Amino acid sequence: MKVFVINPVERTITEAEYSGVYTEIYTLGGFDCFSVVNISDGDGIFVDDEGLLKSGQSFFGVTGYPQPLAGCGVVIGTDMDGDSVEPTVTLEWLRSNVVFLGKANE
């Protein structure tokens, strides 16, 4: 299925393929453990749960979420049963609503 990867270091938002196997999220996001923040009905951004503990971390913000997010993010949707599906937000929406904030020490 199609998902989106937000990379604040490269300042890019790209489409990626995700099989639905949750361990792939670690590879897509480049982290070892994750948390999820909701950005719309059914869509969430999987982020590095230890992102705030890493020095020199890059951040991004997204419209509707009240605080910056550390490291890369993987945008995945969920259905009524909680299973992963393609996100309802579009690549264009993300590019209009994500702000890259730079590194923690800048």
Question: How would you sum up this structure, described in words?
Answer:
This protein is mainly beta. It has one domain. The protein contains two helices and nine strands, in the order E-E-H-E-E-E-E-E-E-H-E. The strands form two sheets. Strands 1, 2, 3, 4, 7 and 8 form a six-stranded antiparallel β-sheet that branches. Strands 6-5-9 form a three-stranded antiparallel β-sheet. The longest helix is centred in the N-terminal third of the chain and has 7 residues, at 23-29.
Beta-strand percent range: 35-45%
Unreliable spans: none
Number of domains: 1
The secondary structure category is mainly beta
Largest β-sheet summary:
6 strands, antiparallel
- Helix count? 2
Report how far the terminal alpha carbons are from each other: 36 Å
Give average pLDDT, whole number: 92
String of helices and strands = EEHEEEEEEHE
| Overall geometric form | globular
Q: What share of residues is helical?
A: 10-25%
Radius of gyration: 13 Å
Give the strand tally: 9
Write the topology of this structure.
Elements: E1 2-7, E2 12-17, H1 23-29, E3 34-40, E4 43-48, E5 58-62, E6 69-70, E7 73-78, E8 84-85, H2 91-97, E9 98-103
Antiparallel strand pairs: 1-2, 1-7, 3-4, 4-7, 5-6, 5-9, 7-8
What is this structure, in a nutshell?
The chain has 106 residues and is mainly β. It is 13% helix and 43% strand.
Question: What are its keywords?
Answer:
2 helices; 9 strands; 6-stranded antiparallel beta sheet; globular; 3-stranded antiparallel beta sheet; mainly beta; 106 residues
